[in-house]
Amino acid sequence: MSSRRATTIAGSLVTASFSAVLILSGTAGADDQGPGSSKGGKAVDEAPAGVKLTTLLPEKISVDNSSQETDVTATVKNEGTKDSGEIRLLVVGFDGLTVKNVQGCSPIDEKDLPEGSNSGFSCPIDNLAAGKSESYAVDATFDLGKTGKICLPVQTSDGKKTFWQQGPVPFGTTNPSPNAPATPLLLGTDNKPVGPGGDELPNTGFERDVLPLGAAGTALLAVGAAGLWWSQRRPRQREN
Q1: What backbone phi and psi angles, to 5 degrees, belong to 233?
Q2: Over the stretch 39-90, which tens digit does the pLDDT of each residue have?
Q3: Which residue, 26, 34, 3, 40, is CA-closest to 150?
Q4: Between the CA atoms of 12, 16, 17 and 22, what dihedral angle is there, to the nearest 10 degrees?
Q5: Residue 226 to residue 69: CA distance in whole angstroms
Q6: Closest to 98 (Cα-Cα) out of 146, 153, 28
Q7: Residue 157 DSSP SS3
Q8: How far is 240 from 168, CA to CA, in rounded Å?
Q9: I need a surface site. Which of 60, 123, 162, 210 has the fewest CB within 10 A?
């Protein structure tokens, strides 16, 4: 075999191998949370003319069955034609879902948390240009023995108006797998907790679990602002 032909063949093999590495790397590093969804979201107070704010949550997340840890991506979008000006995104956890950290955001004091929530972070945004979005990495835990919900309100920087609110919307599974390394959860699905026996459902309180999505969600539209679940305990934005 001539040296030129051997070089050509070797080059082709290297190129093929490199392409295969790219494909495998892309597959391994792909976001396994699925596409973003605005499920459970609603406009509340009227936004400024030309501004249309919405949020997105992953359609699925995965909870480590040993540590209860999970990752969520929270995204706020301006689908309008004009810049938003100063706003803030809140990331709030309910029931079995506890928000531990949100990259670039400040924790909400316990006394200022929305009624019924267990944790929350405030993410100040100086301005969200028309057609742009901001995404935040959310570290959380999910107690698979309970139901769990998350809420994303988008407000003015002082919290006096809520332009959009997604949730409280549940993550959960109707087919729990306590013996697996991880449990996949779907957005908009009420969790079916596994009791101590592995196949027994604990009594978590039906009325309590349904209220944030049913009566409270309806009341939210009726009263505007941040709804009954927000009560009078509006989070204050921290000063840097």
Answers
A1: -100, 70
A2: 999 999 999 999 999 999 999 999 999 999 999 999 999 999 999 999 999 9
A3: 40
A4: 140
A5: 28
A6: 146
A7: coil
A8: 28
A9: 210
The residue type of 103 is: Q
**Tens-digit pLDDT profile for residues 119-128:** 999 999 999 9
Write out the two tokens for 231.
Answer: 């009560």
- What kind and span of H or E run contains 195? none
Q: pLDDT digits over 112-149, tens only?
A: 999 999 999 999 999 999 999 999 999 999 999 999 99
The two tokens of residue 127 are 């301005």
First CA to last CA across the chain, in angstroms?
70
Q: How many helices (H) and strands (E) does the chain have?
A: 3, 13
What residue type is assigned to position 17 of the chain? Answer: S
Phi first, then psi, for residue 17 (nearest 5°) are: -65, -40
Contact assessment for residue 53 and residue 87, using Cβ atoms and an 8 Å cutoff:
yes
